[in-house]
Amino acid sequence: MTIRLEKIRKKAEQTYQMQLIAGDGGLENIIQWVHMIEDEQVATFLRGNELVFTTGIGHSDATWLSGFVQGLTHNKASGLVVNIGPYIQAIPEETVAYCRQTNFPLFTLPWDIRLVDVTRDFCRQIINSEQTEMSVSSAFKNALFFPEDLSKYQAQLERHGFQIAWSYCAVVFDIRSEQTASAKSNIAAVRLYAENIINRMSEKYSIFMQDNRLTIIFAKFEEDEIATCINRIIDYYQKTGRHYQLNIGIGQNENGLVMLAKSYKQAASVLHLAVKNNCCKIYYKDLGVYKILLSTEDKNVLREIYQDTLGRLADCDNAHGTDYMNTLKCYLDNDASVQSVAKLTYMHRNTINYKLRKIKGITGCNIASVEERLKMMLAFKIKDIL
């Protein structure tokens, strides 16, 4: 629901004669607020995604603009509007060239246009967009937790252009940092980048915090579009130095708004799996047998199966420092091939056979039996989700 520079520009061009002279490749930038800045040093206090206005007052000429624009781009501003008049009569060509090269939107505004009217209008549009975003996210939360009560969300979402028959997909992000102080800034950075990416494809989405996790609802997106957004967010995460942990659970893209609650539950379930197994992303549709396990509401049943099958073996490893669990897992993952396990673990076949006999004695399971091996494989998968 964020507002893009292109949307503001269309009206401003007609109403205020605000002209784009460079950086049209950045018109998809999000605007979170507007600022009046007349000093290069003040640019360092920007939070990012601001549209900056300047008159050049206090400067004898326009040569300072080039350094000013570079500071704005460095601090992630969305664009610059230059008030052409007595202080800046023309924008230096080197400034225009830099904005073209970096796709930084550069606008001019006639001196006889009242800046207070322009900035007030832009701020009003931003505030209205934020109010819409809050309204939409509130409706989607009701759709997640009260899916059977359409009156809580259907009319509200349709009023904002979301149709009940569209496809909907829930994606949940877990963003963790060792330093508590930086946790909020990390979440804000991922959220802002995600909005920048998604907003370029469609305005029909919602992004909000739920249970200390970032949740995105994709409306009427194709599977490949959702995958593209997620992959770009992961690319951003990897390029920022990984100073926080990012895990993503992706529910199925289902037709019908009433199916959104199901997609959200799927996303939350696979997110737990992703966090536990240190996977950056997991799609529910790719889970295979895990779907059955995750759909089991009574987790005590799963714990009993795991304890009856592998519990004693895990206790033995913990008590005596053995690695029977790893040996058994390797054996099962390699089609019960002793030779493959010996090669992967750099151990002699006799050593592997000895361990397998010990495993059989501890668990009471005949690992030569296909049925017993299937039960053990299932227990290992249960271990992944508990």
Structure notes:
The protein is α/β, with parallel strands linked by helices. It folds into three domains: 111 residues, HprK N-terminal domain-like (Udp-n-acetylmuramoylalanyl-d-glutamate--2,6- Diaminopimelate Ligase, Chain: A, domain 1, 3-Layer(aba) Sandwich); 168 residues, Reverse transcriptase/Diguanylate cyclase domain (Alpha-Beta Plaits, 2-Layer Sandwich); 87 residues, PucR C-terminal helix-turn-helix domain (Arc Repressor Mutant, subunit A, Orthogonal Bundle). 51% of the residues lie in helices and 16% in strands. The strands form three sheets. Strands 8, 9, 10, 11, 12 and 13 form a six-stranded mixed β-sheet that branches. The protein has a five-stranded mixed β-sheet with strand order 2-7-6-5-4, with helices on both faces. A two-stranded antiparallel sheet has the order 1-3. Helix 3 links the parallel strand 6 and strand 7. Helix 2 runs parallel beside helix 3, helix 10 packs across helix 14 and helix 12 crosses helix 13. The two termini are 36 Å apart. The model has no long low-confidence stretch (mean pLDDT 90).
Task: Record the SSE blueprint.
Elements: E1 3-4, H1 5-15, E2 19-22, E3 30-31, E4 33-36, E5 50-54, H2 65-74, E6 79-84, H3 93-102, E7 106-110, H4 115-145, H5 154-159, E8 167-176, H6 183-199, E9 205-210, E10 213-219, H7 223-239, E11 245-250, E12 254-255, H8 260-276, E13 281-283, H9 290-294, H10 299-320, H11 324-333, H12 338-345, H13 349-363, H14 370-385
Parallel strand pairs: 4-5, 5-6, 6-7, 11-13
Antiparallel strand pairs: 1-3, 2-7, 8-10, 8-11, 8-12, 9-10
Helix pairs in contact: 2-3, 6-7, 10-14, 12-13
